Structure formats: C-alpha cells, structure tokens
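Workshop exercise sheet. Pairs work together: one partner reads the sequence aloud, the other fills in the structure field after running the prediction. Swap roles for the next sheet.
Pair: D.N. / O.F.
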Amino acid sequence: FENENILDHIYGGIMWAAGFMEGDATGTVWDAYETTTLTAEAESPTTVDVAPDGRVFYVDRGDYNAGNPESVVVVDPETGETTTALELPVADERINGLKGMVLDSEFPDTGWIYLYYAPPADEIEERHNRLSRFTLADGTVDPDSEVELLRVPFTPDNGGHVAGNLAWGPEGEHLYLST
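Structure field:
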C-alpha cells in the first residue's frame, strides 16, 4: 500500500463509511438502474460485448448437453432480431466450453472476434484451452477464419472450476486473458 492513489481511495472509503464525508453510493441502489431485456431466447448467456454500431454480441452456452456446440449470438438493437453468428464445437464437460469473448478494439475495420474456449477432446492431442481470433463477415463467423494465438494446458479431472475471460487494456492496445 505505497501507491498514493490507492491510499487516498482507501482513506476516502473509510471516511465515507464513518459518516465524515459525503459520497454517492448509487452503485448499490438498485432503483438507480434500468433493466432492458435484449432477448428471451438465451438459454445460458455468459460474456457480452457491444460493437460501436450498437449490436450486442454474447456467448450462449446452451443447455450443457454433452456434444452440443456453444454459440456467439448477435442482437440487432434496432430490430431486436437475434442471429447466431457462430456455433463452436467445444469440450463436452460442463465446466468447460466457450469461456470468453471480446470484440477487437478496431472491430469496425477488422471484424475480429477473440474467443477463449476448450476444443473437443477428440479433435486434439493434448487437452487445452485455446485463445483464437475469428473474423465476422456479413453477420457470420467463418470457423475456418480461426487464427490460434495461445494454448493454456489444463487437466480435465482436477475437480475444479475452469473459467476465463478476455478484456482490452487502456487504449485497446493489449488483450488480456484471465484464467
């Protein structure tokens, strides 16, 4: 705790909690939020990203039946129409599958979508989670456009939860992967 900004933040929180400083706690007041339903069709949605044109992209893991692909779904904000941009075959354990998705920081120019997922065990030699880049064109993602960027090994029988997510750093110059 040597960083001056961190210390100021902690001090401010203590002063507010003790009633010595005014503050805004609307982040915990549910009436400060408005709920907008994008679609009622999602079975098990996880990660979401919004394109600059307003289209909402999300991962739908489906009903977890073994062998079912998981999907990248797109919601058009003007029509409310939902389309499946990609059905991706994934590992069939419930703890695995399509874990993370983010649109490229230059998405309008590149059409790139980054996905973090576990490929089906029968299609690979060694089990791993994969970070790949795919290209969206004309509303769909061509599975053959995949460019594999990174493999993260895992043991399927570790008994733990397997997760991950993707996010862009400041200025959209670095892609971060959490595991």
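Discussion prompt: Residues 4-17 form the longest helix (14 residues). What would you look at next?
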